[in-house]
């Protein structure tokens, strides 16, 4: 439970830098929108950068971590959710509250203004919190796509998964194809947690909790049909205090080449906060 209050003063103490490798245990699909379809191409292509390489958008990884934490903390009841969009068929609901100790809102930020709740009367939110957590786009490591993998892929880097939905009444089929980054691919992830007050030091445990939850859930589309299982490895955690930025002082290495479990244990240790000195 956070100890933040309405009187908590914010001033940068430092930044926690978490980097590591994200491994695809099964094929990964993060869609780019259908756009223009090529003859023989997949109905649902994956998002690619300007060089045609698949990547994981920071917004996708950040949003999945947020969603999993909302579920884990019991913040998905209608009274806890507000509408970001009410377009028919495209409703978007997220958690947001005015509570100063709300760790989801502290991590991901919140803005003041009128909010329409999913259940209950609309409220005029007064609290404004800067987002502490930044999640960057994760580029693909091209070397993780081996020559043997390329020989069996539908494209140079991606595979096409064919699926078929069957109508339960008429038995009519509805085939579809899904482009995926193949199992075995590896992406490089980078997350930065801004520590703006002493109370923020406890938020690192929530970030690790979200990443651990993701390993037993799914990232991207088609998760309930086998896609999107991921695993983190080679995780590094470093602390950069204000002196790192103002005078060029060295960063403090808190974990190197570890798995998530080891990093989480270090973050949950009683002495962890003392290591984050200004």
Describe this structure in words.
The protein has about 280 residues and is of the alpha+beta class. The protein is about 20% helix and about 30% strand. The chain has one domain (about 15-275). It has helices at about 60-70, 105-110, 145-150, 205-215, 240-245, 260-270, 270-275; strands at about 15-25, 55, 80-85, 90-95, 115, 125, 135, 140, 160-165, 175-180, 185-195, 230-240, 250-260. It is globular, with a radius of gyration of 21 Å.
Describe how the helices and strands are arranged.
Elements: E1 14-24, E2 55-56, H1 58-72, E3 81-85, E4 92-95, H2 103-108, E5 113-115, E6 123-125, E7 133-135, E8 138-139, H3 147-151, E9 159-166, E10 173-180, E11 186-195, H4 203-215, E12 230-241, H5 242-246, E13 252-258, H6 260-268, H7 272-275
Antiparallel strand pairs: 1-11, 1-12, 2-8, 3-4, 5-6, 7-11, 9-10, 12-13
Helix pairs in contact: 1-4, 4-6
Features:
single chain; 278 residues; alpha+beta; five-stranded antiparallel sheet; two-stranded antiparallel sheet; 7 helices; globular
Helical segment count: 7
Please describe the biggest sheet, giving its number of strands, its sense, and whether it closes into a barrel: 5 strands, antiparallel
Structural class computed from helices and strand pairing = alpha+beta
**Which parts are unreliable, with pLDDT below 50 for 5 consecutive residues or more?**
35-41
Provide the number of structural domains: 1
Beta-strand content estimate? 25-35%
- Total DSSP E strands: 13
- What average pLDDT do the residues reach? 91
H and E string: EEHEEHEEEEHEEEHEHEHH
- Helical fraction equals 10-25%
């Amino acid at each position: 439970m956070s100890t933040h209050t309405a009187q908590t003063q914010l001033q940068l103490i430092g930044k926690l830098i978490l980097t590591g490798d994200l491994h695809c245990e099964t094929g990964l699909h993060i869609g780019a929108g259908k756009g223009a379809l090529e003859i023989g191409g997949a109905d649902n292509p994956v998002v690619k950068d300007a060089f045609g390489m698949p990547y994981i958008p920071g917004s996708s990884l950040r949003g999945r971590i947020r969603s999993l934490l909302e579920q884990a903390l019991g913040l998905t009841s209608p009274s806890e959710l507000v509408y970001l969009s009410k377009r028919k068929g495209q409703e978007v609901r997220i958690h947001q509250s005015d509570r100063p100790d709300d760790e989801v809102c502290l991590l991901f930020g919140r803005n003041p203004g009128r909010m329409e709740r999913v259940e209950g009367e609309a409220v005029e939110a007064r609290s404004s919190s800067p987002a502490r957590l930044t999640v960057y786009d994760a580029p693909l490591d091209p070397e993780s796509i081996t020559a043997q993998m390329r020989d069996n892929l539908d494209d140079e880097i991606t595979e096409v998964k064919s699926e078929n939905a069957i109508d339960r009444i008429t038995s009519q089929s509805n085939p579809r194809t899904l482009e995926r980054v193949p199992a075995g691919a590896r992406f490089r992830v980078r997350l930065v947690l801004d520590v703006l007050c002493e109370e923020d030091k406890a938020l690192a445990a929530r970030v690790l909790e979200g990443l651990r939850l993701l390993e037993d859930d799914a990232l991207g589309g088609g998760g309930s049909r086998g896609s999107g299982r991921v695993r983190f490895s080679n995780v590094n955690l470093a602390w950069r205090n204000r002196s790192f930025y103002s005078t060029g002082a060295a960063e403090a290495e808190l974990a190197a080449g570890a798995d998530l479990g080891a990093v989480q244990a270090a973050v949950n240790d009683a002495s962890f906060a003392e290591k984050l000195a200004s």
